[in-house]
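User: Design a sequence. Structure:
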């Protein structure tokens, strides 16, 4: 046999794992040792150190993260930031060119630069904090394992495993590397983290025919669990060279997707920047020929551009999304990227895994059939909390099942705090999960398995194998003089070996009629998606009874039905998503019948005949056929699929214009998690590969958080629209007076760029943030998903911006020119130091601030009256508005700020006039809402007639 091609020896790790594993499948025990350069005693310590230096640590490569400085620098690549940086640089240049230099120009340049730095700092702080929190999650790969070194059994860190190490595996162990088994005693493993299939699969130490590596019965793989038996195995691949590592690389290669909000904000930024530059350039071109000084005219045009760019939008957007992140955090969901919250609100399709996402990954007995009657069993999971209906009638059945088990039920330790939830360190099963479910059911019936084992000690075992599909044990009876064999296994196989049946405490001959009744009971349990086991017994002559005696002439005790139960909150979450118009597609590696049974229990499937498609069927479909399948409105289950299948399905949905969310916990889910618009991984039971690929991690593994995230995401988008209307409407109020002054020939600007920045940062950001914290509207989950093609600036949004901004612009133009005309001074004689001019521009700034206070109240809803919502229902908004007015008063009255902003003190009558314009704006908006409500109500009545 050829020598192993280990990681680092060839073109790359994938070749090492795949090629070596395929060759090792067919080798004998001796050939395996020779190929891997080891012995049954394991490696020597010196050899292990040398191999570790050669192959590297047994761990998956961490994703390369940008350095802190690069992360911070990336915040300055936003188009708004670039426009403002250019504006600041040009203003600094203008200051240098001015003769004499104007301190106001220098202050403007510094103020614009400060805005950019503030926005970047907020965005960086939010993203850095979220990423570092994600890195604190525990990795799935076990931290320690048992190996043979120099013939001695030792426990070493999993990262120190090397190819050639001989590892010792027992029930309950997690596999730390890809290994070829050399000894296997009734071993079965759970490959759910790698393949998505929850059923345990048997393993052997014998040579096998060549075939796909993942299907090799003599190999075990990193990230999987040993559920039964004991084994010794030789490591042939570690770290990135493992099958687990292959999926990790596949996930790393998948390109990240931009969210709908990212695309729309980028589009909006380009449009706004283009409009601002165009208008600024046009005004510059108009004013230069009139004889205005070149530099002053340029600074004036720059002020117009600054007026149109919503400087506070990036900070407001980041913090508004951060509010959504914090709300999700309170629901045990970690959002690694701010924009992921809004993206969930845009979701139209959820592709969900089954095992560990919809289910608890804890087998549970739900039905026991005996003596012609069914006995429901309450309780979920491995905690022996619940009861069996009429336990005396099934006591002997569950006692026999418990005695015929090798698994152990492990209670919570003191450090677990008594937790019994899945993935929270509660009750655990060491060994086969099916046997664990039997032990739990026995305890629920009042049976103590340990006490029963002590009173009826096991003398012999005939282990389960895939041919007989049975397991039998021989026990001494409590009286000490007789012996009994207890047998459990597949109902069809065991029923064929039975000649009698226990019927309500009496042994009866198993007639054809009774046999038919048992088969009907089995079919009924199976139709519910339950895994069914039959249990029987017989007396034997002694402890050395041969297998054929122990497993023939049996008396059937009954049937036990079990399942991997759905999480209790899933059905409500599915219903909420369905109500919100979101399509849910199960994408799993499990068997179609099992997948459909779980889908029906959680209401993903309601129709009699859903579309069930396997991975093999997907392989036969071209892209057009797949698109046609996904376009059908039928309920869809995709089963027995590979990571490549999942990615192809996600891509096909995206090709149809869908916004796709993918949930999962296993390594096999990682590529699709990263390729999706929004990947949601499980934090407690998920793998480190899945958590790395996802942008959102559910720390409590609760699927219900998906529906909550959709609700919050939709409200985030609504709130973003609210503060966009709020911000851009006052930009109109800033721009229109400047344009009006230009066209009437007034030589100065009605509002300076520094005043505009003061409004944007001092009086706009806080109210906008308060609008971003508005709770979701009651009917947010009754609306269909927002189309990705729907623009952030829809016709309705633009209409409200023009309506509200026009009212504000009219008010400030009136107060400005009223002051100018009241002075009776010709336009040409006004200077920047003129008291009337300073009072007039103070009125403009104060007018915008006061009207924005009322504007914030007006935009809280699209149709509902603010008085019905409650003027005091958002105290943060009122506080923010009062702060803005207070700041404006300080700018008007404090001499130090008067010098900076060229303002003047306002009289009480001035404030009263400005408040009147604000009330006018609120009345106008309330009238518009009343008209909309009346119009829609009339339309509904007309439709009813």
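Assistant: Done.
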């Amino acid at each position: 046999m050829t020598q192993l091609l280990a990681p680092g020896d060839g073109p790359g790790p994938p070749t090492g794992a795949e090629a070596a594993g395929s060759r090792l499948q067919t080798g004998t025990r001796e050939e395996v040792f020779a190929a891997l350069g080891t012995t049954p005693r394991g490696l020597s310590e010196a050899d292990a150190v040398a191999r570790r230096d050669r192959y590297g640590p047994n761990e998956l490569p961490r994703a390369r993260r940008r350095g802190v400085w690069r992360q911070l620098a990336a915040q300055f690549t936003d188009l708004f930031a670039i426009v403002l940086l250019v504006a600041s640089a040009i203003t600094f240049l203008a200051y240098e060119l001015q003769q004499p230099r104007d301190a106001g120009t220098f202050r403007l340049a510094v103020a614009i630069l400060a805005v950019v730095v503030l926005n970047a700092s907020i965005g960086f702080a939010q993203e850095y904090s979220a990423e570092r929190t994600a890195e604190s999650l525990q990795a799935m790969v076990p931290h320690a394992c048992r190996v043979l070194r120099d013939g001695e059994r030792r426990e070493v860190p999993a990262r120190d495993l090397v190819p050639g190490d001989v590892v010792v595996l027992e029930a309950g162990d997690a596999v730390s590397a890809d290994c070829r088994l050399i000894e296997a005693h009734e071993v079965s493993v759970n490959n759910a983290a790698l393949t998505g299939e929850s059923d345990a699969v048997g393993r052997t130490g014998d040579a096998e025919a060549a075939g796909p590596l993942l299907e090799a019965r003599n190999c075990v793989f990193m990230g999987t669990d040993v559920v039964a038996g004991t084994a010794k195995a030789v490591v042939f691949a570690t770290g990135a060279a493992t099958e687990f590592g292959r999926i990790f690389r596949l996930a790393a290669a998948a390109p990240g997707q931009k969210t709908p909000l990212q695309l729309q904000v980028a589009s909006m930024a380009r449009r706004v920047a283009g409009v601002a530059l165009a208008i600024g350039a046009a005004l510059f071109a108009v004013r230069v020929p009139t004889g205005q000084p070149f530099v002053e005219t340029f600074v004036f045009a720059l002020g117009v551009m600054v007026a149109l760019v919503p400087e506070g939008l990036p900070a407001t957007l980041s913090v508004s999304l951060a509010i959504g992140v914090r709300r999700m955090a309170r629901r045990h969901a970690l959002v690694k990227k701010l924009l992921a919250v809004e993206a969930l609100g845009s979701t139209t399709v959820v592709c969900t895994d089954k095992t560990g996402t919809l289910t608890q990954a804890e087998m549970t007995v739900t039905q026991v059939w005996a003596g012609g009657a069914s006995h429901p069993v309450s309780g979920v999971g491995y905690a022996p909390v619940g009861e069996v209906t009429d336990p005396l009638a099934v006591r002997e059945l569950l006692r026999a099942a418990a005695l015929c088990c090798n698994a152990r039920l492990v209670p919570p330790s003191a450090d677990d705090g008594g937790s019994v939830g899945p993935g929270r360190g509660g009750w655990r099963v060491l060994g086969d999960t099916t046997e664990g479910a039997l032990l739990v059911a026995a305890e629920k019936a009042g049976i103590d398995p340990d006490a029963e084992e002590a009173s009826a000690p096991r003398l012999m075992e005939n282990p389960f194998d895939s041919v007989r599909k049975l397991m039998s044990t021989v026990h001494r009876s409590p009286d000490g003089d007789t012996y009994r064999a207890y047998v459990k296994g597949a109902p069809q196989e065991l029923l064929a070996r039975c000649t009698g049946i226990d019927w309500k405490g009496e042994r009866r001959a198993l007639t054809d009629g009774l046999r038919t009744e048992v088969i009907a009971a089995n079919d009924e349990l199976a139709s519910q998606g339950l895994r069914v086991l039959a249990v029987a017994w017989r007396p034997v002559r002694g402890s050395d009874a041969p297998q054929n005696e122990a497993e023939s002439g049996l008396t059937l005790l009954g049937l036990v039905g079990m399942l991997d139960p759905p999480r209790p909150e899933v059905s409500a979450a599915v219903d909420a998503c369905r109500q919100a118009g979101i399509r849910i597609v199960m994408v799993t590696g499990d068997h179609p019948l099992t997948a459909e049974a779980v889908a029906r229990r959680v209401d993903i499937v309601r129709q009699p005949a859903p579309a069930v498609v396997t991975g093999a069927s997907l392989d036969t479909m071209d892209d057009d056929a797949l698109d046609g399948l996904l376009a059908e409105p039928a309920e869809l289950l995709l089963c027995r699929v590979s990571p490549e299948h999942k990615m192809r399905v996600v891509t096909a949905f995206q090709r149809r214009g869908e916004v796709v969310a993918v949930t999962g916990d296993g390594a096999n889910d990682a590529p699709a998690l990263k390729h999706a618009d929004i990947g949601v991984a499980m934090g407690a039971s998920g793998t480190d590969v899945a958590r790395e690929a996802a942008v959102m991690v559910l720390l409590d593994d609760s699927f219900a958080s998906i529906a909550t995230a959709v609700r919050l995401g939709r409200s985030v988008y609504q709130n973003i629209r609210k503060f966009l209307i709020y911000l851009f409407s006052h930009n109109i109020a800033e721009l229109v007076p400047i344009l009006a002054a230009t066209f009437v020939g007034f030589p100065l600007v009605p509002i300076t760029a520094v005043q505009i920045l003061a409004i944007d940062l001092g009086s706009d950001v806080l109210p906008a943030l308060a609008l971003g914290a508005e709770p979701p509207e009651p009917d947010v989950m009754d609306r269909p998903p927002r189309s990705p093609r729907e623009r952030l600036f829809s016709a309705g949004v633009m209409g409200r911006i023009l309506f509200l901004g026009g009212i504000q612009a009219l008010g400030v133009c009136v107060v400005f020119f009223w002051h100018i005309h009241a002075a009776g001074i010709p336009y040409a004689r006004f200077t920047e130091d003129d008291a009337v001019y300073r009072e007039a521009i103070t009125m403009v700034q104060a007018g915008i601030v006061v009207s924005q206070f009322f504007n914030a109240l007006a935009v809280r809803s699209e149709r509902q009256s603010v008085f019905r919502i409650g003027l005091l229902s958002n105290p943060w908004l009122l506080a923010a508005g009062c702060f803005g007015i207070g700041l404006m008063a300080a700018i008007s009255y404090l001499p130090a700020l008067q010098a900076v902003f060229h303002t003047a003190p306002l009289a009480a009558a001035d404030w009263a006039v400005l408040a009147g314009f604000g009330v006018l704006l609120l009345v106008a908006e309330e009238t518009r809402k009343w008209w909309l409500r009346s119009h829609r109500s009339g339309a509904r009545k007309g439709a009813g007639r």
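Residues 1-18, 133-142, 415-425, 939-945 have pLDDT under 50 and may be disordered. The first strand starts at residue 144 and ends at 149.
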